[in-house]
Design goal:
By secondary structure, this protein is of the alpha+beta class. It has seven helices and four strands; from the N terminus they run αααααββαββα. Helix 2 packs across helix 5. It is globular and about 60 Å long.
Amino acid sequence: DEEALEAEIVAITRNWDDALEAAVRNVPGLAGPAMVWSPGFPASYREAFTAAEALSDLPEMLALEGDRLRVRAWRRSDDEAHVLRAKLYRRGTPAGLSAIVPILESMGLWIETESPHRIATPDGGAIWLQDLEMRRADAAIGFEGVEAAFEQACAALWDGRAEVDGFNRLI
C-alpha cells in the first residue's frame, strides 16, 4: 500500500522538533513558547519523553517563580498500581535528593529512580526537571484521587508551610 509506506517514511524521518511542532498545533497558547523553548530541551530529555509530554511540562516551567519547587504527578500507561511518578521543576539548581527523600518517605513513598534534566531557558538560565519513579510498598496508589493533593503537599513541605512527619501518609 503506497499511502501506508509514505506515512511510515514520514514517521521515520520526523525528529523530536517536528513532533513538537505537530503536537503544539492542538494546544492553544503554547505554540509560541514551545518553539522558543524547544532548543533548550537536552538530548536526555528528548530520549526519555515524547514531544507531547513536553507540552505537559512546559506550563509547569512557565509558572515557576523564584526558586520555588513545582511538582507534577504522572503515570505511564504501563505502570503498576503501586507506582507513582513525579516531575520536580526548579530554576537554577536541582532539588537536593537529601532534602526531597524525607518528604517523599514521610508520604510512604520510596524513590526507585531519579533522572535529572537541565533545560536551558530562552533567557540563558536553566530549569532542572527531575523525573522520579516511586513505589509504595504497602498498597496500590489511586492516582486520580491523589494527584492534586500530592502535588500541593510536596510543594508545601518543600517550602516549609507544612511539617515533614508521619501524618503525610494520609495524603
